[in-house]
Design brief:
The N and C termini lie far apart (56 Å). It contains 13 helices and 15 strands. Residues 424-430 have low confidence and may be disordered. A hairpin with a 4-residue loop joins strand 3 (50-62) and strand 4. The protein has 430 residues and is an alpha+beta fold. The strands form 2 sheets. An 8-stranded mixed β-sheet has the order 6-14-8-13-12-11-10-9. A 7-stranded mixed β-sheet has the order 1-2-3-4-5-15-7.
């Protein structure tokens, strides 16, 4: 067995057939990261001229010192249970990284750690891949721990809906009551979903900027989204979807409903006789008049929106990456003014249907915190994803293969100090 450099084509041919492949382990991701100073290395382990393991290694210079860090996003494409192959690949990767001047090689394998249900609880007698964790540790990898929140380069905790073998109607049966009610309301509200074209990328940037201003995170520049589009869209690995409200059509429906309610109130009054139960009559009239008032308020709101924005308005948007056996909801946002429409639900419904119709196995809502306490400020994100059915997925985490102990220790001290000062600066500014 020997480690060799692979062409992008060779890597793709092997990766596309591997069960662990994600969009991170692609030439497209390598090209995208190159714009942020990363250099991509495609390597493979060959046995009798056949590739049996491979990896995308992203290399980046460490400031000041003439050293590099290596990162294999979502880990190696390898059978982690095959100790012999894993040991040989590790040995060869370590030697390769050393020659390239690397301090360490970081991996975060796309391997679940232990089985969880949709509430985040560990499934009794479910699968457990702790043996893989131990295999890696025994080969000299340093496990950075079973982290939660956003401590890793990529999310360690995800929420995933498996739709393999399901029709869309069967998948909908797994939606909870709240999700079904919101989707029904959105359909009545005339909220639709469509895909953005390249020239409309500024629309998505504006949505994300609005969201970042509200949630206090730093958004990426428009050039980043353009780079993502250029890297993934031509190969049909990227979709940007937006939710739209058709105000004109919705207003027509509201006015029709209002006319019907007013007619109902009038006719009930006209049908009233002396022997009518007065209490029941007044209760029904009150209910209808409350409905009338609600419709009038909705019409007023929609009329004001129409005057301000025209016949159609975009409520929010989401970016998806399609690769391997899954569709991943990578990022998205909504305008603060339109949050009450809850249009994200409509986009998720549309894309779950797309996932099924195009024979993907998983719809991946992606990152959650791994903390399932309602007091968690980000609990609502997990709760809304949970409403579509599925399960919590916990990955085995990050591992560092240390090349130089001295420089690794120095790097971590410097890195830790940098982030401490950065967080302190944020607190001072606030």
């Amino acid at each position: 067995m020997e480690l060799v450099k692979l062409t992008e084509k060779e890597f793709k041919t092997f990766a596309d057939k591997h069960e662990q492949v994600t969009f991170h382990q692609t030439k497209e991701w390598s090209h995208l990261k190159a714009k942020n100073g990363w250099t991509g290395h495609f390597v493979g382990l060959k046995d009798n001229k056949k590739i049996i393991a491979a990896a995308l290694l992203l290399a980046k210079n460490v400031p000041i010192v003439k050293k590099k860090m290596f990162y294999s996003p979502r880990g190696f494409l390898i059978d982690y249970n095959n100790k012999d192959v894993l040991e040989t690949f590790t040995k060869e990767i370590k030697e390769y990284a050393k020659k390239e001047g690397a301090i360490f090689v970081k991996i975060d394998p796309y391997i679940p750690y232990q089985e969880h249900n949709n509430a985040g609880d560990i499934v009794e007698d479910g699968f457990n891949n702790n043996n893989i964790v131990e295999n890696l540790k025994n080969l000299g990898y340093k496990h950075t721990g079973f982290t939660k929140m956003n401590e890793n380069l990529q999310p360690r905790w995800m929420f995933v809906t498996n739709v393999k073998g399901k029709t869309f109607e069967e998948a909908k049966q797994d939606f909870d009551g709240k999700t079904k009610r919101i989707l029904k309301k959105n359909a009545k509200t005339m909220i639709s979903v469509r895909e953005l074209e390249k020239e409309e990328l500024p629309i998505f940037k504006d949505i994300m900027q609005s969201t970042s201003d509200r949630r206090e995170f730093v958004d990426r520049p428009l050039s980043y989204y353009e780079s993502m589009w250029n890297a993934f869209h031509d190969e049909k690995h990227l979709k940007i979807m937006v939710s739209e409200l058709n105000i004109k059509d919705y207003l027509e429906n509201l006015n029709q409903d209002l006319e019907a309610v007013i007619k109902e109130i009038k006719e009930r009054e006209e049908r009233k006789t002396a022997d009518v139960n007065e209490q029941k009559f007044q209760a029904k009239q009150k209910e209808s008049k409350e409905k009338q008032e609600k419709l009038e308020n909705q019409i007023k709101e929609m009329s004001e929106l129409k005057e301000k924005h025209g016949n159609k308005i975009i409520l929010g948007g989401m970016l998806f990456l399609l690769y391997g056996n899954e569709i991943v909801y990578l990022m998205g946002g909504s305008y603060k003014e339109f949050l009450h429409f809850q249009s994200a639900y409509s986009i998720h419904e549309y894309m779950i249907k797309y996932t099924i119709e195009n024979n993907y196995e998983n719809y991946n809502f992606y990152g959650i915190t791994g903390i399932f306490d309602e007091s968690n400020p980000l609990y609502g994100i997990y709760f809304s994803k949970k409403g579509f059915g599925g399960n919590v997925v916990e990955l085995i985490g990050e591992f560092d293969l240390i090349i130089s102990k001295f420089w690794y220790t120095t790097y971590n001290i410097a890195f830790g100090t940098y982030h401490t000062l950065k967080n302190l600066k944020k607190k001072i500014i606030k």
